[in-house]
Amino acid sequence: MIKSAKSPAIFLDRDGTIIKEKGDLTVISRLKLYHHIPAALKNLQKIGYKLIIITNQSLIARGLISEKKLNYIHLYLKKLLAKKGVRINGIYYCPHHPTKGVIKRYSKVCNCRKPEPGMVQKAVRDFNIDPKRSFFIGDSLRDLECARKTGVRFILVLTGVGKKTLKELSQKHSFIAGNLLKASKLVRELN
Questions:
Q1: Residue 16: left (phi > 0), alpha (psi -120 to 50), or beta?
Q2: What is the pTM (predicted TM-score) of this model?
Q3: Catalytic pick from 13, 126, 130, 139?
Q4: The one catalytic residue among 15, 130, 139, 143
Q5: 29 is in which domain, residue-wise?
Q6: Number of domains in the chain
Q7: Does residue 4 fall inside a structural domain?
Q8: What CATH number should be reported for the domain holding residue 22?
Q9: Residues 69-128 pLDDT 10s
Q10: How far apart are CA 110 and CA 8, in angstroms?
């Protein structure tokens, strides 16, 4: 049996990278995309990348939203982007929190909460992804560490908490972009 070639992917942080952070996203009316997101994601699709969202969602552990409601919000996000010609291949979320959880089954240390690599590793298996040809684009140190732990190149965007993250970096980070649209152009150059 011949295995199919592995695909490259873009792993995307959700809040602060794709969606504007305006408090806890517990209702659809708070979901606001940065204006450049459809163009950026279309650029990445055109050059052959699968698009996979990787997001910590401790709101579930903290009892602020149910998994069913979060899945509804994610379905809405996928449909919203699909109307603009963008296909999100997958959305992976971690419902856990090690210390702030009020729902017992979600109140634990896990391998999926960023910066741990569990969500990316699962997506790599599920979609037959080549990490060496892939990128993680995000705005936080957690995103950067998750990328490092999975062997994926990282691009820091300066949206969300990206500017604060840039100040916190102990060493110069070579891939920095003002936003996801600029990051998509950088991926094309590095491809």
A1: left
A2: 0.94
A3: 13
A4: 15
A5: 9-186
A6: 1
A7: no
A8: 3.40.50.1000
A9: 999 999 999 999 999 999 999 999 999 999 998 999 999 999 999 999 999 999 999 999
A10: 26
